[in-house]
Structure formats: C-alpha cells, structure tokens
Amino acid sequence: MKKLNITAEAFELMQKHAEATYPNECVGFFYGKEDDTIRYIEEAREVPNSKEGDQRRRFEVHPKDYMQAERYALENDITLLGVYHSHPEHPAIPSEHDLKVAQPFFSYIIVSVKGGKSVKVRSWQLNNENIFEEEEIG
Predict the structure, then answer these.
(1) In this structure, is the dihedral angle defined by the CA atoms of residues 12, 16, 17 and 23, taken in order, positive or negative?
(2) What is the pTM of this model?
(3) DSSP codes, 86-128
(4) What radius of gyration, in Å, describes the C-alpha atoms of the chain?
(5) How does 25-50 read in b/e, with b if 16+ C-beta sit within 10 Å?
(6) How many CB atoms lie within 10 A of CB 96?
(7) Spatial contact of 126 and 132, defined as CB atoms under 8 Å apart
(8) Could you read off the pLDDT of 38-92 as tens digits, one per residue?
(9) Contact (CB, 8 A) for 4 and 137
(10) Which residue in 39, 98, 48 sits closest to 68, CA to CA?
C-alpha cells in the first residue's frame, strides 16, 4: 500500500464537502501524481451523489460524472487516483457496499462525520485478495 500525501486544500475540500452534505453521504474524486511509494493528491473535486432514495447510507457516481473525471485527468495531465466519500454517523471504515463497488487501483478516502463535523479521515485500497487495507495519510 502506498502512503498518501494530500495537499491542505484537497484535504479541506473533502472535509467541508462531507460536512456540507451531512446527514447525507457526499462523493468526489481526487487527482495527482504517484511514484513507487507515495500518492501525491493535489486536487479534489466534488461530484453529485446520484443515489436514488436514501443518501444517508449510500452514494453513487453517475457514469457521466465518472467519464468527466477521466477526461479532466487527461486534459490536465494528472492521474485520477481515487474516490472520497463520507460516512455520516459511522466510522471511516469501508462498508460491505464500499467493497462491492471498489476498483483495485483506486484509493478510497472515507470521511467520518459526527453531528455535522468531520472527526476522522482514513484511506483504503484493495489488496490482491480483494480485501481493503488501510493506507497511511501523511
């Protein structure tokens, strides 16, 4: 697993987005560069939670938003490194649903929000056995 190095601006955007959408889940993408050991997250961008129904327990990314994220990365010569989302009133650990929709390459940053305030941010990536392992944020 790689270590994540997140700019203050990107980190703050993720937390503020999570707080602004509370009690619903938020979702967005993050971009940057990477080497053999570190992912340098330079930018985060919000996307709408397109989940029909109860958004307090689930998020969904519309395929059009995912395609726009890929295009944005190409046009700006950066790498789409992962997805962030929030867990309102739940810990920043992946759910069974998160595991079902995860892709191996991406990092998954989860922001735990309690009472409308961001309390914990953790990141996860699938290993070769399709199990989430925590990534260090530094």
Answers:
(1) positive
(2) 0.96
(3) EEETS-SS--HHHHHH--SS-EEEEEEEETTEEEEEEEEEE-T
(4) 14
(5) bbbbbbbbeeeeeebbbbbbbbbebe
(6) 6
(7) yes
(8) 999 999 999 999 999 999 999 999 999 999 999 999 999 999 999 999 999 999 9
(9) yes
(10) 48
